Amino acid sequence: MKKGLYETDEAIIEGIRFGDDRALAHLYKLHFPMISHFILNNSGTDDEAKDVYQEGVIVFYEKIKSDSLELTCQIKTYLYSVCRRLWLKKLAEKGRFATKMDDAENYLTLEDDVPQQEENERRFGVMEDAMNQLGEPCKTLLEDYYIRMQNMQDITERFGYTNTDTAKNQKYKCLQRLKKLFFTAYQAEV
């Protein structure tokens, strides 16, 4: 695949519309981590995340192919909203969710999710920029701890700190720098 072939939402939609399997493959890889994170943090397993994401992509694909897709947000937001609803429905079926799905449907319309998801996307973008400005070793240290869920002992060994207290202190300093970068950039956007 050419570099940059499917960098925009429009390019992905057109690729799917014209039957380019590479567009669909790119879409599968692009937003799965976000859906997986959501499902794993809400009583789900990796296999359940894969199933829900595939169902969400199928909904998206079928809407494109039937020419009934009216996208008023980014693909990422759309897929998140669809997958979120699918997951809540599965949780209700399994009894892991206290509310009846009929009651929840009144509150979980796709259109209601869009503004919140767009705000979340904006924050994630600002956070990504702040992480990139943070530099090393802070960026990797925070990713290891918060994203890869490594323990402090592993981080101590990886970065060559003398003990876990030193690693914790460094993590704290890095987190403070990240917060400052994030809030400065976030306030500048508002």
From TrEMBL:
InterPro entries: RNA_pol_sigma-70-like, RNA_pol_sigma-70_dom, RNA_pol_sigma_r2, WH-like_DNA-bd_sf. Keywords: DNA-binding, Sigma factor, Transcription, Transcription regulation. It comes from the Bacteria. This is Sigma-70 family RNA polymerase sigma factor.
